[in-house]
Fold these 3 entries.
Entry 1:
Amino acid sequence: QVQLVESGGGLVQAGGSLRLSCTNSGRTYSSHVMGWFRQAPGKEREFAAAISRSAGATYYADSVNGRITISRDNAKNTVYLQMNSLKPEDTAVYYCAAIVARTGYTDYLKYDYWGQGTQVTVSS
């Protein structure tokens, strides 16, 4: 069973930083590719970043590339999303997710497990 819990969201001014965390309280954490998605009001959930099982490979959406960094600590069953130079358009609920498959990591429909989400609000 995979149970994901996000934390670290909040209100920040434009140009600021936040670090989101996602902890899996279940088993087999290290066997999943982990991803972060975000969903703004009235918009579809969109891919932000993903990281391979061993953390040897990372993937980013063009919209956030260069401003965010995904990382994971398998010993702590935790994946992180460091976000810098935040913009008001980054305002969204951020979700952590786990995918069993080895492909499709940018497609939210392919993910198997989801956290409840954490709100990030960036003020101008």
Note: The two ends are 40 Å apart (CA to CA).
Entry 2:
Amino acid sequence: QVQLVESGGGLVQPGGSLRLSCAASGFTFSRLAMSWHRQAPGKERELVARIGNFGGSIDYADSVKGRFTISRDNAKNTLYLKMNSLKPEDTAVYYCQGVSQGRYEYWGQGTQVTVSS
């Protein structure tokens, strides 16, 4: 059974930085294509960034390009999202997702990121 556990969220001032982590277990991590999504209050969940099984095929939402960096460490079974120059509109619950064989989806429980002065 795949388990994904996010951590690293919190309260940060505008312009600040955070690094989110997503620890995976119960599956061979390199067999999962991974991504970060977020959902703000009253809005639909949206894709933030995604990364291929071995660190290639990286894509970002236009709203975070140049500020966020997705990465993974397959030896540590961990996905990361480094977030710089945070804005109030980045406030949301951030979720990691793993996809196996292009169709089986797994989600973490989410971690809250609040950007406010």
Note: The chain has no helices and eleven strands.
Entry 3:
Amino acid sequence: VQLQASGGGLAQPEGSLRLSCAGASGFDIYNYAIAWFRQAPGKEREWISCITSSGETTVYADSVKGRFTISRDNRKNTVYLQMGSLKPEDTAVYYCAARRGWPRANGDEYNFWGQGTLVTVSS
């Protein structure tokens, strides 16, 4: 597994969590665009955000725009997803994925995936 997602857990509505996506030993994420996806029970996988390899460009799905922030620290070989103003509908397993070149919203265009981390938003 080239990517390791972590940071999930239980959060209250309007709360926050920060997810991390770390490159495994020998996998340098600075070469890759990174995206976050999520999949809620009984629903299809949903793209939510992506960032270019340099970190200069970020894009968000409308469902999380203004609430989530993606960033990266290539020195730490890690990408972050800061999630705020959480809603119960944000409950899902969150996955990070990597691809060379420009980031895409289509998960089929990503070559490497993390194992997923569960986020539950509930009071």
Note: The mean pLDDT is 96.
